[in-house]
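Weekly structure sync, notes
Attendees: PL (lead), two postdocs, one rotation student
Agenda item 3: pending single-chain targets
PL asked that the sequence for the first pending target be pasted directly into the notes so everyone works from the same version. It is reproduced below exactly as submitted, 675 residues in total.
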Amino acid sequence: MNKVWENDLVGVLADVDQSELLYRDSILINKQDSLQFFVRIISQPAESFPNVKAVTGFYSDLEKWGFEDDYLQPEFIRKEKLREWLDDRLLIFKVEKRIRYNHEEVYNMFGVRVMPKLPSYEKDLKLIPVPIFSQKVNGMGQGEFISRLVEKKFVGRIVEVSHEANDTPPIVLWKEEMNEDEQFTVYGVFEKHQYAHGGFNFELRDELKGLDLEEEWLDECYLTDESPNVAFVPIGIYQELLNRLEEQEAVQVSSEFARENYPQETGSGSASLEQQASPDIQGSRQEVAVSVMEKPTSEINVPAPKGNEKEQEFLELLYSHTQDAGLIYRKENLINFHTSMKSSSLVILSGMSGTGKTKLVELYSQSLGLKGEQLTVIPVSPSWTSDSDLIGYADTLNMVYRPGDSGLINALRKAEDDKDKLYIICFDEMNLARVEHYFSQFLSILEMDHGKRVLRLYNDDLESRLYNSAQYPPTIVIRENVLFVGTVNMDESTYHFSDKVLDRANVLSLDVMPFTEMKQLPEKKKGMVARADEVDYDTFESFQYKNRSISLHDDELALLWEVHQMMQNVNKQVGVGPRIVKQIDQYLGNLPVQEYILREDAFDLQVVQRVLTKVRGSEDQLRELLGRYNREKDTVEGSLLIRLFDRYTNVSIFKESRNVIKQKAKELKYNGYTM
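Predicted structure, written out during the meeting:
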């Protein structure tokens, strides 16, 4: 399986004995009569990067940087010319692993850039990548940056360094641009981090400390416009910075920044705590201040980094609309629902009757500013048994196409024509009939690549004979601007979902909040505050992060693999599956900037919504997997899944997953089976 590492690495032309021992030289002429060379990595790679001696580069990588190859020259001259050219240069690049036809793994450079070697360069040079934050890139001043570090808030994205869980940079740099000068401050020491749409979220080892990066240190670091958001620091200087930073006094904070940027809110739920002290960072070139106010509970999100304002505005409006409508959803529910809508082909809202599942879909649509046919709610009938009940059929007796009464086909035709607008189609109480019967065509096409999602209404040979074929052509393209969502109740009047449905859907269960909170809701308004503008498809697409490759951490993948094996031991037809892994990866990548659901919480939710929904069967099958419920202690004993979660606490504490396992173990004890 191909894999891409998108963090920047630095390398030099490999020595002869470091060129993977495949060739006698680190430069060769390949079968295409093109120069090929091997590069030794001298910067710290991501933890998941394998221990390979060299990566491969090609002449085409260097052509844009001024190197010219003369194909008319003898091979030894062409190779020596490249060797001399590379001798004074370092290469910055990313790496892709490819599997060749003979199953051999090769590691190729891409995105290659060039920078000169410094006079201090030595053969055994080792570089450590340190992320650089700045107002220009991250959309905040130094004071707000420090505030967010102290308060464990997101500080922005730096794509050039590794985001893997075990690759936390102990120190970061802040770049302050003053006239034509650039001045750098080192901050740390950090021991953990998370990375989401809001970028890095750091956890301090102790207290935040700061130190100016002196000119003599700066002169030894590799900084270049070709990789402007990362400094490659020699390991000796890096260690000295860590030692000097540990000796500094902790950054003292001031409430000045808090008063300017986080005004105290009035009303229930808002609170503030001010603590004043003099800013005192040894050697700091400017006064800094840190907010120490508590976050008002009326806010749904932390202030967003640059580029996320519209999504933040949408989430705040959604929360406001749910309160105005008298619904008491937890903010985590709303964020979970929105993230699922961004990342899933089908979202299913589950819960007891009366929790407002359909209303939530309507409020979501209103918060996006959708109007008319842009939201289609389709009540599912218990009598539906085939696709024709939903999409209609070709009446060959009267030679017309008769669409279903649901309005689905008209909405899809409209969405096909208005590709710039967003459409939501909601199947209300979708499990009143068997989903696998009336929804079978959709289940097959929803997982296809966009552009290939085609819904067939009737055979092509009927098109010229049907009177209304211009209005209803034989096929409809389902574009990316259509979002599908369903609501379900789990009771004696409904059908349970098959694995075919569960493989394609995020199944969310909405929480019922304490009834006392209903008294705290604002008085229901006659009319909700409407959006000033409609969120079109392009804007909604800007909310989305479409992963090009799997970015799950190694521990997360290892856990999912072990869960898959456990489920396979119970039933060979049930497991996690590659599709679910990809969809979990999409969900985590699409988690919006906020502080209510962190990455470990999101992974826990995905285990509940994508994996544990498939754990169904009898007590004999599932006793070891789920464990035995002890009614006296209200605990679960002997669960293989819980033991597994205990081993992977670095991934998540799995609070929600443990609750679901406990509920399923109860069902086994009292019913003999769980569904």
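Discussion points:
- The longest helix spans residues 554-570.
- The longest strand covers residues 181-196.
Action: rotation student to compare against the earlier draft before next sync.
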